[in-house]
Structure formats: structure tokens, C-alpha cells
TrEMBL record:
<comment type="function">
    <text>Required for the binding of mRNA to ribosomes. Functions in close association with EIF4-F and EIF4-A. Binds near the 5'-terminal cap of mRNA in presence of EIF-4F and ATP. Promotes the ATPase activity and the ATP-dependent RNA unwinding activity of both EIF4-A and EIF4-F.</text>
</comment>
<keyword id="KW-0694">RNA-binding</keyword>
<protein>
    <recommendedName>
        <fullName>Eukaryotic translation initiation factor 4B</fullName>
    </recommendedName>
</protein>
<keyword id="KW-0007">Acetylation</keyword>
<dbReference type="InterPro" id="IPR000504">
    <property type="entry name" value="RRM_dom"/>
</dbReference>
<dbReference type="InterPro" id="IPR035979">
    <property type="entry name" value="RBD_domain_sf"/>
</dbReference>
<dbReference type="InterPro" id="IPR033107">
    <property type="entry name" value="EIF-4B_RRM"/>
</dbReference>
<dbReference type="GO" id="GO:0003723">
    <property type="term" value="F:RNA binding"/>
</dbReference>
<dbReference type="GO" id="GO:0003743">
    <property type="term" value="F:translation initiation factor activity"/>
</dbReference>
<keyword id="KW-1017">Isopeptide bond</keyword>
<keyword id="KW-0597">Phosphoprotein</keyword>
<keyword id="KW-0832">Ubl conjugation</keyword>
<keyword id="KW-0648">Protein biosynthesis</keyword>
<dbReference type="GO" id="GO:0005829">
    <property type="term" value="C:cytosol"/>
</dbReference>
<comment type="subunit">
    <text>Self-associates and interacts with EIF3 p170 subunit.</text>
</comment>
<dbReference type="Pfam" id="PF00076">
    <property type="entry name" value="RRM_1"/>
</dbReference>
<dbReference type="InterPro" id="IPR012677">
    <property type="entry name" value="Nucleotide-bd_a/b_plait_sf"/>
</dbReference>
Length: 135
């Protein structure tokens, strides 16, 4: 006894599959990130600013959030008057530009109970050429 409501002949009448990653309702991670590559640093460090972080976030939870990317360091500043309390923002440093680019595509994704902001960190480096050590 068949429990299906249609036969294989129904496949002839189906529309071609839709690439759901282009739909406005697609998850952000499925869409191509809308990032201006000119804003990316040309030389290391490749650092992302992380905003709106939960106050109970840890370095490990940040590394887990960016799992699969080459993350080299996490910095979570603390309140000077209360060293136990985080300031709600931080920085993640990546080993390569591609990891930074992929991290930026996670902007507005949820970490804990918050939608965090991921952006290129302001860097005090000139926008010229890289030193010879960093081609």
C-alpha cells in the first residue's frame, strides 16, 4: 500500500528548484555578504570589531561562534571600575583575510541571546602597501 499522494509522473509538472539563498528571507549566512572589500585591511592584523556582546560571553564562546575560521586571538575589554564585568564589545583577530571576510558575513547573527555586530575594526595603519614581510 502506497502512502504517497502523487506518482513520479508529477515531477514533470514541477517548477525548477529555486536558489533560496537569493531570496530576501534567506538566512544571512546563506547570502553573499554585502561587504565592500576596499574596507578590508591589506596587511595583518585582520581584526573584526564585535559589538553588542552578551556580558557573559567568553573567549571560548567567541571562538565557537567563528568555528571553522582561522581565529588567532580574542580580546574582551573589561570595565575599569569592575574588572569582573565585560564592556559588551570585543575584538577577534584572524590569521588571514578570507577568515575576516567570512566573519563579517556573520554580522547580526545571534550569539547567546543577542544579535551581535561584526565589522572591520578601525586600524591605525596607513592604507599604503604592506611591508615586505607581508606581501
Amino acid at each position: 500500500v502506497s502512502t504517497t499522494w502523487h506518482s513520479n509522473d508529477d515531477d514533470v509538472y514541477r517548477a525548477p528548484p529555486i536558489d533560496r539563498s537569493i531570496l530576501p528571507t534567506a538566512p544571512r549566512a546563506a547570502r553573499e555578504p554585502n561587504i565592500d572589500r576596499r574596507r578590508l585591511p591589506k596587511c595583518p592584523p585582520y581584526t573584526a570589531f564585535l559589538g553588542n556582546l552578551p556580558y557573559d560571553v567568553t573567549e571560548e564562546s567567541i571562538k565557537d561562534f567563528f568555528r571553522g575560521l582561522n581565529i588567532s586571538a580574542v580580546r574582551l575589554p573589561r570595565e575599569p571600575t569592575n574588572p569582573e564585568r565585560l564592556k559588551g564589545f570585543g575584538y577577534a583577530e584572524f590569521e588571514d583575510i578570507d577568515s575576516l571576510f567570512q566573519a563579517l558575513s556573520l554580522n547580526e547573527e545571534s550569539l547567546g541571546n543577542r544579535r551581535i555586530r561584526v565589522d572591520v575594526a578601525d586600524q591605525a595603519q596607513d592604507k599604503g602597501e604592506c611591508p615586505a614581510a607581508f606581501p
